[in-house]
Amino acid sequence: MEHELRAEYADGSSPDDIDPAVKTWHVVREGDGLTGMCGHELDPGAAVRSVDLWGTGKVPICHSCGALYLRESP
Ligand SMILES: [Zn+2]
């Protein structure tokens, strides 16, 4: 199953801002649309990144999503 990362923005920040503040990244299963694996609803305009960033420590990733993703990844 394919996964991707989708941004959750800090309070008062939105994807339309010039330099939006990302609070954390959630893991979204392909086909689940805008709902993170932890159940968090995400903005349709939220940035998307490759799930390859998971585990690199370069970006903050939702702990609940991370734990669930770990169980699904080979
Ligand atoms: Zn999450």
Q: Which whole number gives the mean pLDDT?
A: 94
Q: Report strand order across the widest sheet.
A: 2-1-3
Q: List the domain count as a whole number.
A: 1
Per DSSP E runs of 2 or more residues, the count of β-strands stands at 3
Number of helices: 1
> How far from one another are the termini?
10 Å
Strand residue content: 15-25%
Helix/strand structural class? alpha+beta
Radius of gyration: 12 Å
Largest sheet composition: 3 strands, antiparallel
**Ligand species:** zinc ion
Region (Disordered): 1-20
Organism: Streptomyces mobaraensis
Protein name: DUF3039 domain-containing protein
Fold and architecture overview:
It is built from one helix and three strands; from the N terminus they run βββα. It has 74 residues and is of the alpha+beta class. The chain is globular, with a radius of gyration of 12 Å. The termini are close together. The site of zinc ion (ZN) has 7 residues, from helix 1.
